[in-house]
Amino acid sequence: MSRPTEIDEIAGLLAAMEAAGVAEVEIEGPDARLHLRLEPEGMPAGAAQAREPAETAPPTLCRAPAAGFLLLQHPAAGRPLLAPGAPVAAGDTVALIRTGLLLRPVTAPATGRLRWLVESGALLGYGTPLAEIEPQIPH
Amino acid sequence: MIEILSDAPLATVQDFGRPDRRRYGVGTSGAMDRLALATGNILLGNPEDAAGIEVPLFPFRVRLDADLDIAVTGADARATLDGAPLPPWWRIGARAGQELELRHPLRGARAYLTLSGGIDVPRVLGARATQLRGAIGGFEGRALKRGDRVPTGRIGTAAAPLGAVPPDAVLTLPAPSGAAEGDIAVRVLPVGEYAELTPESRAAFWRSGWVVTPQSNRAGYRLGGAVLETVRKLEMRSYGVVPGLIQLPPGGAPIIQLSDANATGGYPKIGTVIEADLWRLGQAPIGATLRFVEVDYQAARAAWLAVEDYLTKLRRHAAWQGAAGR
Amino acid sequence: MPADLGLDVPRIGLLGTSAMLFDAPGAFDLSVQQRIWAMAREAALWPEVVEAVPGMTNLMLSFASPPADPGALEERLLRAWEASEPGPVADSRLVEVPVVYGGTLGPDLAPVAAQAGLTPVQAAELHAAAEYVVYAVGSSPGFGYLGGLDERLFVPRRAVPLLRAEGGSVMIAGRQAGVTTAAGPTGWHVLGHSTAPLFDASRDPPALLRPGDRVRFRIARIEA
Fold first, then answer.
1. Could you say which of 3.40.1550.10, 2.40.100.10, 3.40.50.300, 3.90.950.10 is the CATH number of the domain covering B184-295?
2. How many contacts, defined by CB atoms under 8 Å, are there between A and B?
3. How far is A53 from chain B (nearest CA, A)?
4. Which of A96, B185, B325, C53 would bridge with C60, disulfide CB 3.0–4.6 Å?
């Protein structure tokens, strides 16, 4: 199993790339070379317009904070974390990722309406998009 | 350092207690739900038996006087940190000045607050657990009260929020026949003078729902239900008592000896709630109905191994994920 | 009188997954208890044993984890019993305990005396005349179960427990005597009170009395 620190560094790089709108990065080290490329399908339709003025803001991707299974409610709770259709605020916990016996919160990166991209119980990799949030300016 | 803001009746500092001082008349004490205490400590990267605060009555409010990683486990006390709700079985890095509130749980009985580095009161006779009778250990040998400033072991690491899959989602027990919704099943090994029970009493022991009466506390649970009888009236010679031991006093109402039980006792004994299920007793509130499920030693041992397996896995997952601090 | 277990042969059984209890056969007497002390000294050294706790003609062993083979442990206990010999403890000490008999802290001196057909002063003197042996320590911190009570003072445990006996209570029940160190409810009869430092949690070991020690009560005062 890869050491978590290496995977985290790579995921951090990927997040930085996406935020900057950069599609490809190559890094050379003393005994290894790392080439990261964000495939076009992996980028949301709105990201290509990130630097252009837009009439509506593009949806923001919500990504798995760790590899594991997607849980829409806490094992000890009787109901889901999110009421279906309810708006989310940036920072809300919208789901959990279960990795073994550990649970990590999935936090909404933006305010708006959430649309799930995967199903409850799905096994996700680190950084996998699991939902997108249509930003909405709160009235 | 944390400051107790609420009255905190019966809240005590507890660790795993004193397993080896019975021969001096000092009982074990320690957390009634050791599994919850251990889980909180594992999430924090503490030694598993670091001292925490056992909270049996609510609301319970504390203010952190330093940046501390905290975990709340056990009964879901609907904890809030500066008003923001925390999931159950959860750890988070908290900051100086923040206030944590635990509220009356809708299920279960006792919540456990653990903190980075553990509660740092002196060890007495090898442990930090509080024994109220005898005023041994803990915070000044007593339950906590408003205004107490309780020292903690180390400053927090601004730990990222992280939860544990609760033990009762993993260590499931089938409901025994005749049990009602909400009844708490615990496995019991017949011991000692079990064979002295009348046949009717033996049947009633396994069939009855046993109510945890209001005369129950950390020393033991007095049970209400059937009245049990032995074939002959017995005078016992005092013997060493362990948590979970079920005794039958002359009145016929069984008592389950628990964490603060006397080191030795003299009533006839008829069964022991297995060690692997003591945490279930710790989470049975006053008024709950218990059901005894008969097991043999091998099944009891297998149950103990299953609990150890849960903790081993949690420890491994937490270490592997570099949980402490991330 | 209720039945004593009255065993002809030793009885050994599990008390759960973390403890085992050995009950010695025969009468409740000092030679049996001395063998229990010998067994405890030996069993305390066994690697799986966390503690060996002598009771009254019984011995409880506690474990850190459930033994894989409890039968083998039972065998070992039985052999330890068979090999054990009665005899006093090598480093036995005589401990003197001064007592104020009767009064508000000795509410049962008068009723116990009456039941024995004695005056309170006679009952106090009879209690203080004996040399007691510490059979075991347990029940509450530093509480020594003492054998050697004069049989004229044998009274069954209270039918209704006393809600609160203060720490330092000098008590009797059945054929046993003892002194508490902390307040609590009791089914015993409280004859008087002592301030002897029988328990100190900051000492290790914290209990003053040890199995095999001898105790004499000294009459400081009788408040009849």
1. 2.40.100.10
2. 60
3. 35
4. C53
